[in-house]
């Protein structure tokens, strides 16, 4: 019963953000996705736009020593579009649920 309520809450939150797709993932997975978004979401609108995504990829290269190719504009754009499943220009928590990228 608790799980059911949590899913309902996540769905309500997603709907409040303007996401029409009902969220069906387990609550802990959803929380993980939300945490991931929060790390990248610098203007705190609960979604990641292209600018934030580019800044995140640049940070990964500069601070985490990731391959510099990761921050190339073409790759940034391609990876963003891949994650932005509904193509609205924002990556939301439900769109990164299945991805597993940290
Ligand atoms: Ca944002
Ligand atoms: Ca989207």
From TrEMBL:
Residues 28-63 form the EF-hand domain. Pfam families: EF-hand_5. Keywords: Signal. It comes from the Bacteria. InterPro entries: EF-hand-dom_pair, EF_Hand_1_Ca_BS, EF_hand_dom. GO terms for molecular function: calcium ion binding. The keyword Signal applies. PROSITE patterns: EF_HAND_1, EF_HAND_2. Residues 1-25 form the signal peptide. The keyword Signal applies. This is EF hand. It comes from Paraurantiacibacter namhicola.
